[in-house]
Amino acid sequence: EPVDDATATFKAKDFAFYHDRPDGLYITCTVDPAISQRLEADDSAIVVVGTDKELNLYLLDAVAGKLLPDQLVDTVFSLYRHWNFRTLGLETNAFQKMLKTEIERRIAHERNTNPHFRLFHIEEFTGTSQLNKELRIHGLQPYHERGAIKFPGERLELLTGVWSQLAFQMLEFP
After folding, report:
1. Edge-to-edge strand ranges of the sheet holding 57-65
2. Quick check: 110 and 116 in contact, CB under 8 A?
3. Using CA atoms, how far apart are residues 99 and 90, in angstroms rounded to an integer?
4. Phi/psi zone of residue 42: left (φ > 0), alpha (ψ -120 to 50 degrees), beta?
5. 3-state secondary structure of 131
6. pLDDT tens sequence across 27-57
7. Residue 56: which residues within 8 A CB-CB, separation 6 or more?
8. Bond into 2 cis (ω within 30)
9. Cβ–Cβ under 8 Å, residues 90 and 99
10. Residue 73 phi/psi, 5° resolution?
11. Are strands 44-51 and 57-65 parallel, antiparallel or unpaired?
12. In terms of DSSP bridges, do strands 44-51 and 26-32 run parallel, antiparallel, or are they unpaired?
């Protein structure tokens, strides 16, 4: 159910956009793996963000869907080859720790087979409950309000694909 814009956490008027990606961004990737593959369960999400010196967050790439663990790992490395991110943020708890282990195994393999492979740092987000996740989402609100979360494109109504889905989720939160 859509939320009234007057009381919404993320207001439609505050969405910001970019056409040309600025140079010199600090590029990171964050993975929120879903535990369940059930149709009604949350999707896994992987987002690549570039941050500039003013702490503007440029949404560069995103993948969302029902992804198996090997698909998540393959997608992370595909995104790494494209974006060469410096840090990977990974939500880990019981089941999801296995995902970190598999990513570390793939890093070791890449380092052994590719002399140009540049290691990236893995930052874990642990002990996440639904409440903690909602608090982290609320933490994005000041960035959104000042127009610092920048979507690729021109305006909200023209967003497509994963960007349209993300914008819709923001507008209906919580």
Report:
1. 16-18, 149-152, 57-65, 44-51, 26-32, 87-92, 121-126
2. no
3. 9
4. beta
5. helix
6. 999 998 876 556 566 788 999 999 999 999 9
7. 148, 149, 150
8. no
9. yes
10. -60, -45
11. antiparallel
12. antiparallel
| Helix/strand/coil (H/E/C) assignment for every residue in 44-103 | EEEEEEEECCCCCEEEEEEEEECCCHHHHHHHHHHHHHHHCCCEEEEEECHHHHHHHHHH
Q: Which residue has the tokens 């989720």?
A: 169
Q: pLDDT for 55-95, tens place per residue?
A: 999 999 999 998 888 899 999 999 999 999 999 998 776 55
Q: What gap in Å lies between CA 45 and CA 56, rounded to an integer?
A: 21
Question: What is the total residue count of the chain?
Answer: 174
Q: Give the DSSP H/E element, type plus range, for residue 162.
A: helix 161-171
For the record, the structure tokens of 83 come out as: 């974006």
3-state secondary structure at position 161 = helix
Q: Write down the pTM of the prediction.
A: 0.86
Tokens of 87: 């840090």
Distances (CA, A) of 139 to 63, 65, 94, 133: 22, 24, 25, 10
